[in-house]
Amino acid sequence: MADTKSKNDDQSKSTDNTVAKSESSKLANSTKDEVAPTVPVMKYTKRQFVSLSSFPGPKRDLFQISLEDGKEYTLEEANAAVAAVIERMWM
């Protein structure tokens, strides 16, 4: 009877160790796979860029000339479009 009890104890310990190892490996994998949340990139239409009061009037005029209706742009894309128009004007 003592042998049976010790065998059961050994089996439960090995099962506990297996569960603990699998849980720790899940935690390790989840921290490796998790990606830090990123800030969404804001996109604006031509109308929104033209109506932003944070830009001076001439910059808004350049947005009006450079950007297409109905298309959304990030600030970087809009600035690149303006730079391209300025470059074409002076060449």
Task: Note down, in words, how this protein is organized.
The chain is mainly α and 91 residues long. It has two domains: 1-36; 46-89, no CATH class. The chain is built from four helices and no strands. The chain has helices at residues 2-33, 46-51, 57-66, 75-89. It starts with a helix and ends with a helix. The mean pLDDT is 76.
Q: What does this entry show, briefly?
A:
The protein is an all-alpha fold and 91 residues long. The chain has two domains: 1-36; 46-89, no CATH class.
What characteristics describe this protein?
91 residues; mainly alpha; 2 domains; 4 helices; 0% strand
Ranges where pLDDT stays below 50 over 5 or more residues in a row are none
Give the percentage of residues in beta strands.
Answer: under 5%
Annotation field: number of helices: 4
Please summarize the sheet with the most strands.
none
Mean pLDDT: 76
Report the strand count: 0
Shape: elongated
Using only CA atoms, what is the Rg? Answer: 31 Å
Q: What structural category characterises the helix and strand content?
A: mainly alpha
Helix content range: 55-70%
Distance between the termini: 97 Å
Written as H for each helix and E for each strand, in order along the chain, the element string is: HHHH
Number of domains: 2
Region (Disordered): 1-34
Biased composition (Polar residues): 14-30
Biased composition (Basic and acidic residues): 1-13
